Amino acid sequence: LAGCTALPMGRGHRDGGRQISSAANFDPARFGDVWFIVAAYGAEAECGPLGETWKPTGPGAFRVTGTRCGPNGARAFLAETRVTGPGRMIRQGAGVQEDLWVLWVDADYRAAVIGTPSGAFARVLSRRPVLRDDLMNVARQVLEFNGYDPANLSRL
After folding, report:
1. Of the chain's two ends, which shows fewer C-beta atoms within 10 Å, N or C?
2. End-to-end CA distance of the chain
3. How confident is the model over 32-84, as pLDDT tens digits?
4. What is the pLDDT of residues 91-104, one digit of tens each?
């Protein structure tokens, strides 16, 4: 695990008093392509099917397009994302910049958990629209380890 850090209690879906860690084994070259958001926290879980396409634009850089939850349902988005460290990225789009951490990815890059140190969001991603139960169980454990309450995670 690449660098653990404790953050103060804050807004969002995670206990900021708990440590959070990014995946040191994260390989940006394997992360590109289509991801389905199969579980999320809060309002994101109310929009229905959501997805993201991570298109590599250079070493450690992606153009991310997809859908996210807006005030009137799912909305398209575009963001530029660059790797800043092991399992750590900065995503910029629509005037917003956010730290985005890969908390876990399975060895075959079939599933991943991404989130923000602030706890603003966390998502479980899958290469297929439905994630196998064993991989979802691991994703829940990873979220809990990183201060998220797995009971509040909703499957999409």
Report:
1. N
2. 28
3. 999 999 999 988 888 878 899 999 999 999 999 998 887 788 889 999 999 99
4. 998 788 999 999 99
How many angstroms separate the most distant Cα atoms in the chain? 38
CA atoms within 13 A of residue 111's CA, in its CB half-sphere: 17
In 3-state terms the chain splits into helix, strand, coil percentages (rounded to 5) of 15, 50, 35
Residue 11, number of CB atoms within 10 A of its CB = 9
Chain segment 109-122, per-residue pLDDT in tens: 999 999 999 998 89
**Taking a C-beta distance cutoff of 8 angstroms, is the pair 112, 35 a contact?**
yes
Q: Pairing relation of β-strands 2-6 and 19-22?
A: antiparallel
* 121/116 Cα distance (integer angstroms): 6
Residue 145 CA, distance from chain mean position:
15
Scan for tokens 């229905």, then name that residue. 48
Q: What is the pTM for the complete model shown?
A: 0.89
Rounded Cα distance between 86 and 71, Å, is 33
